[in-house]
Amino acid sequence: MAFLKLSTFVVAVSVVIYVYTVNNSPKLHVPFGGHFHPDFKDVVDKFRENLHTGVEVGASLSIFHEGEPVVDIWGGFADVYTKRPWTENTLSIICSTTKGVTALVVALFVERGWLDYKKPVAYYWPEFGNNGKEEITVELLLSHQAGLSITNGTFPIQWIAEQPEKVYKFLERQTPYWKPGTGYAYHSVTYGLFVDSLLTKADPKHRRVDKIFKDEIGDKFGIELYHGLPNNLYYRVARHEPMSLDSILWKAISSLDFEPFRMIYKLLDSESIFMKGAISGTDRLPSDLSFNNPEYNKIPQSSMNGYSNARNLAKLFGIIANGGKTDKGILLSEKAIKVLEEPLTFGKSVDGLLNEQFGRGVMVMTENGQLIGFGHSGYGGQIAYADTKRRTGFAYVTSRLKELRLVLFYPDVKEYRETYYKCLQKYLENKRKKKL
Q: How would you write 193-208 as a 3-class SS string?
């Protein structure tokens, strides 16, 4: 009873502080810029409204339809402390959205014959095949079913860039936390460690993941995205802004959405699979402080350490949504894209936190029971996805943690998405009339 009273008091005080802070903060001119087709003005109006009400602190939103940009906007502050505006070329950490990008690299390797989803990881990386990992296939690893979300100990993050052989040996010693293939749980940190290592092992040139992406996708198709931010580009990156506990509580209470409380409960349980996974892998744990550290930012790690903006992500997934073909070549075949649309997980995760359908490195999207595409969300609310049904590449990137949840679509992003689909109907109808 005493704990309940204390908890109620803490929540009440947090809400009062948050409301007071919001209502007494000085109002500033909020920067905004971009380009858009007039038929999508409602999407832009919703974004600008969120900027002025403080829902958005700094963000970019971009949408490509049939390979062409119909919305490309940005606004707010790249650094709220110095009032540095978010501009057309601002980059931001995209967190776990990086996982979805790297899944496209894996799909490219499969197309080239350098990987096979059905083959054991040990086929390409023999030393991996021990301690219960012998039968883990490439697709089990990609779909968070390998049981490797938790590691026995950690290693210095600098090893990734400076001593990769030590990273391989560390990963080779690991034992699955649950029997591979019997269930799934989000490999929040370890996904990139294992998948990046597998890519390097399978690559004929044994390149690191950042070099693979640059050579095979970035340079060829004009996509600016970095697995690990080069130090000379740090001046362009938005400062990560954590969401305060009082604002998280206020948003949850005001919307009658208590999912964040379930997440907080898991975060406080040191024995939960989620928390054990969050402190696995490297000794530099993902935190609000490390996200603003250039020495951390430069480390290539596909779990969370990608840097880009909405324009480049929407362009990338827009190519995929439009069949994979461009005037610069074919990124992925339609057959490869179809394979990425297939879900491999169903129902609740083994830690009880998720009820998502994961495919081969991506989160699969459905609508009225029909598969319509795939992508990946990220910490803070970022997302990039390909809607293959509507030939749409959609991306949203923010420097501010929006909410505590593990879902594909965060509520604010869901609003942008739904508004876009309404506008798309008008856009297509106007195009049809012009042809008559």
A: HHHHHHHHHHCCCCCC
Mean per-residue pLDDT, 112-134 = 98
Nearest to 424 by CA among 34, 40, 71: 40
State the pTM of this model: 0.90
**Could you tell me which residues come within 8 angstroms of residue 259 by beta carbon, excluding any fewer than 6 positions away?**
252, 403, 404, 405
Q: Report the DSSP beta bridge partners of residue 150.
A: none
∠87-102-112 over CA atoms, to 5°?
Answer: 130
| Contact between 246 and 15 (Cβ < 8 Å) | yes
Structure tokens at 232: 């000379």
Token pair recorded at residue 75:
């606004």
- Above 50 in pLDDT, residue 46? yes
Average pLDDT, the chain: 89
Using alpha carbons, list the distances in angstroms from residue 205 to 86, 133, 199, 209, 220. 38, 25, 10, 11, 18
How much is the pLDDT for 221?
98
E strands, 86-131, are 92-93
* Residue 411 or residue 145, greater confidence: 145
**Is residue 3 pLDDT above 50, yes or no?**
no
Q: Please state, in angstroms and as integers, the Cα–Cα distance from residue 197 to each residue in 12, 202, 291, following that order.
A: 47, 9, 22
Q: Residues of 386-410 as b/e, b for ≥16 C-beta within 10 angstroms?
A: bbbebbbbbbbbbbbbbbbbbbbbb
When pLDDT is averaged across residues 263-272 and rounded to a whole number, the result is 67
The confidence score (pLDDT) of residue 251 equals 63
- The whole-angstrom distance between residue 202's C-alpha and the CA centroid of its chain comes to 24
Nearest CA-CA partner of 307 in 245, 230, 391, 395: 230
φ/ψ of residue 116, rounded to 5: -135, 125
Do 226 and 233 meet the contact criterion of CB atoms below 8 Å apart? Answer: yes
pLDDT of residue 412: 84
Beta bridge partner(s), residue 275 = none
Class of domain 2-90+223-242+312-435: alpha beta
Name the burial class of residue 235, with classes exposed (0-12), middle (13-18) and buried (19+) by CB atoms within 10 angstroms of its CB: exposed
Q: In sequence order, what E strands does 368-434 have?
A: 370-378, 382-387, 392-398
Q: Dihedral of CA 333/335/341/345: which sign? A: negative
For the chain, the C-alpha Rg in angstroms (whole number) is 21
